[in-house]
Amino acid sequence: MLNIPSQSFPAPSSQQRVASGGRSKVPLKQGRSLMDWIRLTKSGKDLTGLKGRLIEVTEEELKKHNKKGDCWICIRGFVYNVSPYMEYHPGGEDELMKAAGSDGTDLFDQVHRWVNYESMLKECLVGRMAVKPAVPKDYHEEKKVLNGMLPKSQVPDALAKEGPISPSYDWFQTDSLVTIVIYTKQKDVNLDSVIVDHQYDSFRAETIIKDYSYLIHIELSHAIQEDFSVRVVANVGKIEIVLKKKENTSWECLGHPLENHNSLIPKKDTGLYYRKCQLISKEDATHDTKLFCLMLPPSTHLQVPIGQHVYLKLSITGDFVSVSNPEGNFKISQFQELEDLFLLAAGTGFTPMVKILNYALTNISSLRKVKLMFFNKTEDDIIWRSQLEKLAFKDKRFDVEFVLSKPTSEWNGKKGNISPGLLSEFLKRSLDKSKVLICICGPAPFTEQGMRMLHDLNFSKDEIHGFTA
How far apart are CA 46 and CA 84, in angstroms? Predict the structure, then answer.
């Protein structure tokens, strides 16, 4: 749900409105409208002067580019060549020149923070600012570094050779906001990759990068409000976490580092982190299966990625449930160019198939066929049977088959347990060499036995994903 403020936007007093005494727009030459700029950015013309290269820019280098025909500006750690944009800027060339050859973040925030500059100037991106680690002053500030860069000595040799490039972070502030920026140096980061928790004085932001976890863990120097926003700029691998100050005071520092702050370690070594969620409702899905609805704390950002799961811990009262960080090794890249998707589920092993079904049918354009074989004991055990049958009727690519091990005499469908015979009949490709993915989930004996059968049917390891706890 979108939270739309009741007052008009922009507010009447905002600098985003052109009013008497406010920021004036400069008349643009013909052929210099916003649409003209968009056409130019899509023309393939080299707008940076670097022929597609991205570079690290030192402060000395940035200062050299301070003329109208050669104007570089830094915004939140990224440097843009705005020379081609000069004649298209509604505020005029003089406004841009105020930040020529320097960091224009504060000026940008004062004038038009709401503008999506990354999208507007993405073809003008020169690179990011080169930063150097600060020399630690004492033991307590050992991990406090300039712009959040991780000193080389803190990166294990094996990680430096085999793992992703170590991320870095920086922070900025206005009178009312603090923005923490994480530079992941990856292009496949999304909102599912970021988990943020603020409990008491502890602020914790974990970013999942491939099979590694990058952690910012800080005792904030000042109080913040419960709610915050998280934004990901995927094309440059940047994450922005915007915190609201409780008091409009200037922070001298972001805070003090806590355990594992500014660390990049294998995900398997991180352990589970829990937060308390309120139980909003519970309803019967079947006679022995319940659907729980939980509400995350306002001070938490967490989205469970497709094919992953969380662990729950129940409190004695039952009003709250502790929910862990997402776990699992399913990779969304397995859907790339997928043509046939087969799902094998037993009982509550249907759970991960819900998001997989929704995502595949909505987003995978190459998909020809999706089939679900759902194993249960009786008809009463089938979770969401009517919804599955409606989906099969609505989307002709999807088909579902129910298999019962203890059916009544009235049952006309398939009977029995998972077997090579059932699978060989079910797992038929739409084309001889179509790209296939088979997902299987259920009780451990079902999953293990099923995976052995799939290998015996000559499906490769890359074509099978088993969901195991």
Answer: 10
Q: Is the pTM of this model over 0.70?
A: no
H or E, element range at 96: helix 93-97
What is the rounded CA–CA span in Å between residue 203 and residue 225?
A: 12
Do 246 and 201 form a contact (C-beta atoms < 8 A)?
A: no
- Spatial CA neighbour of 299 closest among 221, 202, 232: 202
In angstroms, the CA 208 to CA 371 distance is: 31
Phi, psi of 117 (to 5 degrees): -70, -30
CA-CA distance, 255 to 356, in Å (whole number)?
Answer: 40
Please tell me the distance from the alpha carbon of residue 333 to that of residue 227, in angstroms, as a whole number.
32
* Residue with more model confidence, 33 or 162: 33
Name the nearest CA neighbour of 299 among 223, 365, 404.
Answer: 223
Using DSSP, state whether 388 is helix, strand or coil.
helix
Q: Which helix (H) or strand (E) holds 422?
A: helix 420-426
Cross-strand pairs, 294: 279
Q: Which residues are within 8 A (CB) of 128 and not within 5 positions of it... i.e. 6 or more apart?
A: 54, 56, 57, 77, 78, 79, 183
- Looking at residue 316, what is its pLDDT? 65
Q: Identify any residues that bridge with 243 across adjacent strands, giving them in sequence order.
A: 178, 228
DSSP state of 275: E
Backbone angles phi, psi at 113, to 5 degrees: -60, -30
* 387-to-384, 391, 392, 407 alpha-carbon distances in Å: 5, 6, 9, 21
Structure tokens at 412: 């006309």
Sign of the dihedral through C-alpha 6, 7, 9, 15:
negative
Distances (CA, A) of 241 to 4, 178, 184, 440: 20, 8, 13, 36
Residue with the bigger pLDDT between 143 and 305: it is: 305
